[in-house]
Design brief:
Layout lengths: L1 H6 L1 E8 L2 E7 L9 H8 L9 E6 L5 E7 L4 E2 L3 H15 L3 E6 L2 E9 L2 E5 L28 E4 L3 E6 L8 H9 L9 E9 L2 E8 L3 E3 L3 H13 L6 E6 L2 E8 L2 E7 L1 E8 L1 H7 L1
Parallel strand pairs: 2-3, 4-6, 10-11, 12-14
Antiparallel strand pairs: 1-2, 1-17, 3-4, 4-5, 6-7, 7-8, 8-16, 9-10, 11-12, 12-13, 14-15, 15-16
Length: 277
């Protein structure tokens, strides 16, 4: 951390449908990110602000990605950040197909044309112990009011199918379910409404971040839950507060496609780094 304190820390600001990220490219030099620093960067008034922070490091594939929530906790998966970084690396290298490694596993990303980027988030985890849940239950109808569906996408998800997602007290219910005893690692929470054939309206409460305008892994989890419940086919349009993602559950995994935006490049100052580390 001494070099970063002395010279500052470069970063990029990106978002996927308003799901926003600070991205640190650590391929050229190692970067330490203690919890205090992650939380300070996440502060939208005194720092930069983000839903998740992502670090790009050298890996055996095109790159290795590490993700942090705004509360400083680490996350194994972040779909929209993966798409944003994949687009950045495609623009850098000229490649249209990438392989990225994460705690979730090895993910494939590709240029979907028309400015869109796709990532394969892998096969969903459907067994209670893999999600993980605290004990064995039916993951299609959890013993929680509303009988939500549990899905693992490298992180846990709890999906409620409701009449009107826009009428839900997202802050109140999301916060309560995130820390439900059934989820020992906490959970992301989704409220989804069917809008038409293979069309879902979705609102998201993210574990460690709160209300977000979009969530890639949540969108994948909702599509999987809808298919398992027999509500949709295997290709689903997901309308989130920040825009639309297309999700397809295929034989090789759950593919998610949508736009990305590289907003700006910046640098944390030595003064900021000294104050928060």
């Amino acid at each position: 951390m001494s070099d970063a304190i002395r010279i500052g820390l470069p970063f990029m600001k990106m978002h996927g449908l308003g799901n926003d990220f600070v991205v640190v490219d650590a391929r050229a030099r190692s970067v330490e990110l203690p919890v205090t620093l992650v939380r300070a960067i996440a502060d939208r008034r005194r720092g930069v602000g983000f839903d998740q922070l992502a670090v790009i490091t050298v890996g055996q594939a095109d790159a290795h990605l590490v993700f942090y929530n705004s509360d400083g906790s680490e996350s194994a998966a972040c779909g929209n950040a993966t798409r944003c970084i994949a687009r950045y690396l495609m623009d850098e290298t000229g490649k249209t197909d990438l392989t990225l490694t994460t705690r979730r596993g090895t993910l494939r990303a590709r240029d979907a044309g028309a400015g869109l980027t796709s990532v394969n988030m892998g096969q969903p985890q459907l067994d209670w112990c893999d999600i993980p849940l605290a004990h064995e239950v039916d993951t299609l109808a959890l013993p929680i009011d509303g009988a939500p569906v549990a899905t693992g996408m490298g992180n846990p998800h709890c999906t409620f199918f409701v009449e009107d997602a826009d009428e839900i007290d997202l802050a109140g219910r999301g916060a309560a379910i995130e820390t439900h005893a059934l989820f020992p690692e906490r959970t992301n929470v989704q409220f989804a409404s069917l809008m038409g054939p293979d069309h879902v309206r979705l609102r998201v409460w993210e574990r460690g971040a709160g209300i977000t305008l979009a969530s890639g892994s949540s969108s994948c989890a909702v599509a999987v839950a809808a298919v398992r419940r027999g509500l949709t086919g295997r290709e689903v349009r997901i309308d989130l507060d920040g825009g639309t993602l297309d999700v397809a559950w295929r034989d090789d995994g759950v593919w998610m496609t949508g736009p990305t935006m590289h907003v700006a490049d910046g640098q944390l100052t030595p003064e900021f780094m000294k104050a928060v580390t």
